[in-house]
Specification:
Rossmann fold, two-stranded parallel ribbon, single chain, alpha/beta, 7-stranded parallel sheet, binds NADP nicotinamide-adenine-dinucleotide phosphate, 264 residues
């Protein structure tokens, strides 16, 4: 299969590109800086916020391979801090990288997938795309946007033989924690005394989380399925339970549990 995957410099992207290339797929992966650690992978330098660069990358793959079977939209980042203190610039980066990046990639591959009459689109959401996480509110908003978009995309593209799958990982130990852009002003810390404890908890959970190759193996299984499921939660039992509780508990009870977990 011909696979286009974004953000393969570390974490899920790196492990998924590694595994899929070892399995014999033609893998085209994007990076923002010089990386050449996977010899069988075709690296493409781009930032997913750049529409034109994404279009050119897809054009390049089509010229070489004649088709694209799978898009794995993985690139993403997180900002952390009280919602009130996030700057306009930070919010735009969050939404542009996580949500508009997906839109750019989907827009670029869809004309070819429609013509082929087949294709798989896999988007990395998060458990934070199913529940608003305190002090990661804009990150959650970017993933909720992915959820809404993919639900509609799935329906629109079904007649063309294209499947859409949304993956919601729980806590994983990747470069994500170190790359998080956190509010550091003393004003933010003083105004929201719970913030530091809550973000420390988030980072502690992520650092002790699952290893990214677990998710890579799941993606490998998904792309081999003729009709993959629409949604997957890939996480510890406790986090899968939280997703279940969010669906079935009264909102007030669920908010109380989440608040307690994050010392609010
Ligand atoms: N780790 C978790 O616990 C977790 C949980 C739920 C969901 N996720 C999601 O999983 C995805 C992958 O994250 P990860 O955990 O593997 O983190 P990671 O190790 O930090 O990898 C993120 C990748 O995305 C790239 N990226 C970020 N912004 C980009 C942009 N504007 N344009 C192009 N590439 C960009 C990074 O490139 P650079 O190296 O150039 O920054 C890196 O290759 C993200 O969408 C994240 O939201 C992660």
């Amino acid at each position: 299969m011909v696979i286009f995957i974004t953000g393969i410099s570390s974490g899920f992207g790196l492990e998924t590109a590694r595994l899929l290339s070892q399995e014999g797929h033609a893998v085209y992966g994007t990076v923002r800086r010089e990386v050449t650690s996977l010899p069988q992978v075709n690296y493409i330098r781009l930032d997913v916020r750049d529409t034109k660069a994404v279009q050119q990358a897809v054009q390049q793959i089509i010229e070489t391979e004649g088709r694209i079977d799978v898009l794995i939209n993985n690139a993403g980042m997180g900002i952390g801090g009280p919602l009130e203190f996030a700057t306009e610039e930070e919010i735009r980066e969050q939404m542009d990288a996580n949500f508009m990046g997906l839109v750019h990639c989907v827009d670029a591959v869809l004309p070819y997938m429609r013509k082929q009459g087949s294709g798989k689109i896999i988007a990395l959401s998060s458990i934070g795309g199913l529940m608003g996480l305190p002090f990661q509110g804009f990150y959650s908003a970017s993933k909720f946007a992915i959820e809404g978009y993919c639900e509609a995309l799935r329906l629109e593209t079904k007649p063309f033989g294209i499947t859409v799958t949304v993956i919601r990982p729980g806590d994983f130990s990747t470069g994500f924690t170190g790359s998080r852009k956190k509010a550091t002003s003393s004003e933010a810390q003083q105004a929201y005394p719970a913030y530091q404890k809550a973000i420390d908890k988030v980072e502690h959970d992520e650092s002790g989380g699952l290893k990214p190759h677990v998710l890579a193996r799941r993606i490998s299984r998904i792309i081999r399925k003729k009709n993959p499921r629409y949604g997957y939660v890939v996480s510890s039992f406790e986090q899968r339970l939280s997703v279940f509780l969010k669906q079935f508990l009264p909102a007030k009870w669920f908010a109380a549990i989440l608040g307690k977990y994050y010392y609010l």
